[in-house]
Design goal:
Blueprint (H helix, E strand, L loop, with lengths): L3 E11 L2 E11 L4 E5 L6 H8 L11 E4 L2 E2 L5 H7 E4 L10 H6 L7 H10 L3 H5 L18 H15 L3 E5 L7 H15 L3 E5 L3 H6 L2 E6 L2 E6 L1 H7 L1
Parallel strand pairs: 3-8, 3-9, 6-7, 7-8
Antiparallel strand pairs: 1-2, 1-4, 4-5, 9-10
The protein binds adenosine-5'-diphosphate (2 copies).
Length: 231
């Protein structure tokens, strides 16, 4: 499972400003869709609606996961089905292990380690004196932006949701850090349905489908190759 469908979705935060206007698309199970478009075009709104941060009203279209209207899905099962990796991850002032286990506290040590390895964070964690028990934040080690991101990726790998929402805001990480977490992200995205607010060229180039948004509408769509052929 993990198929997402937007059916003629329109949405306004306030009267007279339309954030989305008749948006329809499908993310087939296991495929990656990249949202591109200038600031204010509606990319974040798509993710927020899918996460039910806001609900659609009757007449504003439908959002379906595996054929089911998400308004008929409980928040809890939606949160189980969807993993979110935001632009810059904030960690709890707790141990690294706690931060990875958060959301799946019953996980075994082996599973936690496997997730940290896939997130390319295990070796770094083992370099700390207390390993997975090392505290992060104010009273512990200070992690770089990329390292925090990898901890968040490990947490999401452990949670193992069929759907991923990724927000690659431009500001958070410098280019070399981005390159650094690329492998971890690839491990996360593989085999899941993903919807990304895409800024990295590599994300756009590897997406199965690119949706170009403008003023709340999809104005172009296709593979990277197809879109390049248009120009
Ligand atoms: P993007 O992610 O592509 O930058 P958004 O989805 O954030 O675009 O925004 C789409 C439109 O909705 C914009 O006109 C934006 O100003 C407006 N908008 C976004 N968030 C809010 C909000 N919380 N309240 C009111 N308007 C908003
Ligand atoms: P706002 O811009 O309206 O203040 P935020 O961006 O701070 O909203 O997000 C508030 C919550 O909405 C997040 O904690 C998350 O649950 C959800 N959310 C917002 N943006 C995203 C996103 N890009 N991907 C997934 N969830 C998001």
């Amino acid at each position: 499972d993990g198929e997402i469908e937007f059916e003629n979705v329109s949405f306004s935060y306030e009267a007279r400003t339309t954030a989305l206007n008749g948006v329809s698309f499908k993310v087939p199970k296991g495929s990656s869709v990249a949202l591109v478009g200038e600031s204010g075009s509606g990319k974040s709104t798509i993710l927020r609606l899918l996460y039910r941060f806001y609900d659609l009203k009757d007449g504003e279209g439908r959002i379906l996961i595996d054929g089911k209207d998400i308004r008929d899905v409980t928040q809890l099962s939606l949160r189980k089905a969807i993993g979110v990796v935001p632009q810059d991850s904030v960690l709890f002032n707790a141990s690294i292990g706690y931060n990875i286990r958060y959301g799946k506290f019953g996980a075994s040590e082996e599973d936690i380690e496997a997730a940290a390895k896939a997130a390319q964070m295990h070796d770094r964690i083992m370099s700390f004196p207390d390993g997975y028990e090392t505290k992060v934040g104010e009273r512990g080690v200070r992690l770089s932006g990329g390292e925090k991101q990898r901890v968040a990726i490990a947490r999401t790998l452990l949670k193992n949701p069929p759907i991923l929402l990724l927000d690659e805001a431009t500001s958070a990480l410098d280019t070399s850090t981005e390159k650094d977490i690329q492998k971890a992200l690839q491990n996360l995205v593989r085999g899941r349905s993903s919807l990304s607010i895409a800024h990295r060229l590599s994300t756009i180039a590897s997406a199965d489908l690119i949706l170009v948004l403008k003023d709340g509408q999809i104005v172009e769509q296709g593979s990277h190759r197809e879109l390049l052929a248009l120009d």
